[in-house]
Amino acid sequence: MCLTRMITVTLAGAAVLLPVAACSSDEPAPGKAPQAATASPAPAEQTPAGAGHPFTGAPGEDLEPVLAVKIENTAAGKPQLGLKSADIVYVEQVEAGLTRLMAIFSSKIPAKVGPVRSARISDLHIAPQFGKPAFAYSGAQTKMLPYIARASLFDVSDSRAPGAYFRQQGRVAPYNLFANTKQLLAKAPKASKAGDIGFTFGDAPAEGGVERKSYTVKWPAARFTFAWSASKKQWLIWQDGKKDMAAEGGQLSAPTVVVQYTKTERSQFHDKNQSYTPLVHTVGKGSAVVLRDGKAYKARWERKSEKKGTTFTTPDGEPMNFAPGQVWVALASRKPVTP
Asked: Rounded to the nearest 10 degrees, how much is the dihedral formed by the CA atoms of 214, 219, 221, 225?
């Protein structure tokens, strides 16, 4: 059974009527919640500094400039193009309890990405840990533009680099705006190259993980389920009960998924319908769940300042290593709220 309600959201200056469905789902059933370790885990081996890419742990990758792109994440904008090549994908809450993605590219740069959508204030707090990356987006609230101008990033939006963007045939506006990444980076020749952002890669902790077939994360109007595939050694991604497919083909997936529990509150920004933009706090400390190798691990996260990266540790304070490869970071709240 499926119930659908319509929510009016103003995105990039335009009012958009979005369907939000609550349906019976064919997604994998959840397993047990991770439990605290009963014994102190043995120190795990981790990738030494410089031995692998700081975003993915993959060996032999040159350190290239960082490109951050805001990507649409509702059914109207799917399937997305380019996410398969991202090093890191952040899931952020936006207005009306929906979510939007910030994809970080460096080790692999796809030719095209999209649909590109508007920026949010939380983006400006995530970006500084990457130095001064190129930031691609399609507009923002007028009141937020001065904040973007002062932020630690190179603005390669559709207004600053219009030649890099194009409208994709077969898609409906505003979900048809895509970008050529080579032209985006050409407009930000001094964009920072990839560097340490706190991630460590290597063997999982010897103890403390709980076997999971799937793990579900909820926002007020969105739901992600990450289902383990032993054959692919990846967490397959489902959204709102449906497989999250890539425009390039196949289901989106990642070897490591981090559910980072953060404080989410109302920001000063809102649309004309008084729907407030959430501010997701990514500086500070808190709890997390790290999914890798078919197991869920309790973890702690800490980020001391906006210019610093985020470190993840086990309950005993040891580094919480990720599996090499793409990392999804779901910025969630223990109790989903719409500010």
From this structure: -10
